[in-house]
Amino acid sequence: MSNAKDRNPAGDDPVTVLRGVGPALADTLARLGVHRLIDLLLHLPYRYQDRTRTVPLNRLQPGRQCLVEGQVVESRINYGRRRSWLVTLQDDSGYLTLRFFHFAKRQFDSLKTGHRVRCFGEARFGPKGMEMAHPEYRVFVDAPPPPGGGLTPVYPVTKGLTQGRLRGLTRQLQDMDWPEDDVAPYGTLLYLHQPPAEATDEDIATAQERIARDELTAYYLVMRYRQSRRARQSAMPLPRSQQLGRRLLENLGFELTGAQRRVVTEVLNNLTQNTPMLRLLQGDVGSGKTVVAAFAAIRAAEHRAQTALMAPTEILAEQHYLNFSEWLTPLGIQVVLLTSGLRKKEREARLQSLADGEALVAVGTHALFQHDVTFNNLGLTIVDEQHRFGVHQRMALRAKGRTPHQLVMTATPIPRTLTMALYADMDVSVIDELPAGRQPIETRLISASRRNEVLDRIARVLGAGRQAYWVCTLIEDSDQLEAQSAEATWQTLKARLPRMGVGLIHGRMKSEEKAEVMARFHSNDYRLLVATTVIEVGLDVPNATLMVIENPERLGLAQLHQLRGRIGRGREKSHCILLCADELSETGRARLKVIRESRDGFHIAEQDLKLRGPGEIMGTRQTGDTQFRVADLARHAHLIDDVVREGKRLLKEAPEDAEALLQAWAPADTGHIAV
Ligand code: ADP
Ligand code: MG
After folding, report:
1. Res. 493: pLDDT tops 50
2. CB-side neighbour CA atoms (13 Å) of 160
3. Are 219 and 421 in contact (CB under 8 A)?
């Protein structure tokens, strides 16, 4: 079998040149976006384990993974509530218990008193001192050799691919003879796959920064390419015609804010052109983005061009539908709602009216881009809360028309520096003003041990005829656990407030159930709504003036800000109570202070970037929550100015280098690079 080591590898070589990579493993790797060797090189560890030195048993810290060694002094089976096998280790400094809930007889026989063991696992407090449950271990009859080696990488993996397997593959990369290259920083990549034992957090951060810079530059280039491709396309121009918008202004019942007027003008001017619009509309929660979208839809309708408005949840889609119907129907514009729960007949009727071009506006969820949905003449797509959708979904919607104009809206404030790089393909409009007369929200931190006072407070607020939210959060990314915790809280609160209607809403409920709960909260039948973070977007109940958020320290500031935006919508002053852990970290406290003191989403986002600072390299960076493989906006925001400058330089002076960078990072220009 040919060995990749025998020849000079190229980044473009398929992974199948590696030993042991056949079609099956290649398929599995493809699920991680790894097709070529360069993809594997760029598939970097998100953290490292230090298995290069052992920690004395009396120095173990709970919650930390580490390597330990000791001699077995006892091995017994404990028949408690749950059968477990306990092994006590001893070293010069102290003891440690290993606990196994399931084990084979062969394992049991191999760990005998007197044997030496080297384990890797996470220490935690047990009934009798420190324990490790199910550690990885190796048994030695005599003293084990010194551990040595480099740091152990921990990779994002997928079903059917273990850390061990992936480590084996990246070790093969280390053995190859990579060229020195300016464009492809092979040396840095190899270093990040296996840093030496003495590498500090800082060394690793520096290397990551080097790669993040490339990734962000590639991203910027993709955005710029998309922009120029769009500039060459043509769209249906939608100039001013019947002035239906003026009639909406008269019927609206409120004055537009100055910011709304400015933004409406920006959007409408953009629509008059014959190149397709791609505009990002940013505006804090409650700043009034929906009505801006309505003006755009009206302009399209004046030309008998259709608009599709897509929202991330059914609740939100329904709210938009109600607003749009109220605003547009009097102007003779027919609006239909498309959600997934529709009966077949009803759905068919609505689809027909879109296909005929009779209905000019379709509001809905993902149901909008199912393949049986056809438009007569789709001229404009509007995506609300765009961060909830992937680029593919936005594209799928766009594909329902020829080259429709696109408006994407977000309440997630994006610091200006980031907008320049991340949304380089879009024009940006910002609503930086809230409608007048908004009541302030007073935000307080209260420690969880004072929960009872908070419950009394809720009883008073509800007693006075107001409504409240109780938001449960969970750190694990699990719908199910989150639902369970909300359910438990709901039971407690119901028992505690027997005469008040208490509703429950969470992501595991069917959409009809959710809609029903929402309706009952709207109609004040439910006075208190226990919710998970599903209520984050869109909900508009002005009578709700109190929100309690449990464990706010677990949420990002942007998310907290969004949640809090559910209150402060009526005439009464509102209150937000952050029920926090009794012991907050310094940063945790500083972050919540930002939320307490500001209601300006942009300011909050900027502070959040600053406070999250350099992050923990060896520690707990989560995977999967970002659109980047290496870059982490919290840690690399300071690179953006450079990235934009470098991107512009490459486009102008070194298009071949720009091409090479894109070849490495985004060969198809889509995939992991998403807006
Ligand atoms: P968001 O930007 O969060 O999507 P919405 O469009 O849902 O905000 O608007 C929030 C609420 O404010 C809605 O009830 C809307 O009718 C109302 N609203 C919007 N603009 C104004 C305004 N200029 N004056 C008063 N109320 C407004
Ligand atoms: Mg909105």
Report:
1. yes
2. 9
3. yes
| Amino acid in the structure at residue 327 | W
Residue 299 pLDDT: 97
Alpha carbon of 297 to ligand 2 centroid (Å): 15
Mean pLDDT of 541-569: 88
Q: Which numbered atom of ligand 1 lies nearest the CA of 291?
A: 6
Sequence-distant (6+) residues with CB within 8 A of 418 are 633, 637, 640
User: What is the SS3 assignment for 400?
Assistant: coil
Decide if 423 contacts 223 (C-beta within 8 A): yes
Question: Ligand 1 pocket: which of 248, 284, 291 to mutate (most atoms <8 Å of CB)?
Answer: 291
Which amino acid would we find at residue 21? V
Examine the pLDDT at 36 and tell me if it is beyond 80. Answer: yes
How far does the centroid of ligand 1 lie from the alpha carbon of residue 288, in Å?
A: 3
Instruction: Residue 246: count other Cβ atoms within 10 Å of its Cβ.
Output: 10
467 φ/ψ sector (left φ>0, alpha ψ -120 to 50, else beta): beta
Confidence (pTM): 0.70
Q: Which residue shows structure tokens 């290993």?
A: 98
Pocket of ligand 1 from Cβ distances under 6 Å: 254-257, 260, 283, 285-291, 411, 435, 540
Residues 539, 541, 542, 548: is their CA dihedral positive or negative? negative
Q: What is the pLDDT of residues 434-475, one digit of tens each?
A: 888 777 899 999 998 898 999 999 999 999 999 999 998 865
- Centre a 10 Å sphere on the Cβ of residue 344 and count the other Cβ atoms it contains: 7
Q: Which residue has the tokens 């015609």?
A: 241
| Stretch among 249-263, 371-385, 511-525 having the lowest mean pLDDT | 511-525
pLDDT (0 to 100) of residue 476: 52
Residue 305 has pLDDT above 50, yes or no: yes
Cα of 292 vs centre of ligand 2, distance in Å, is 10
Return d(Cα 468, Cα 530) in angstroms, integer: 9
Residue type, 586: E
Rounded CA gap, 494 and 517, in Å? 15
| AA letter at 341 | G
Average pLDDT over all residues of the chain: 86
pLDDT (0 to 100) of residue 614: 36
Closest C-alpha residue for ligand 1 atom 16: 288
Least confident of 2-16, 26-40, 173-187, 593-607: 2-16
CB 109 within 8 A of CB 80: no
Q: How many residues would you count in the chain?
A: 675
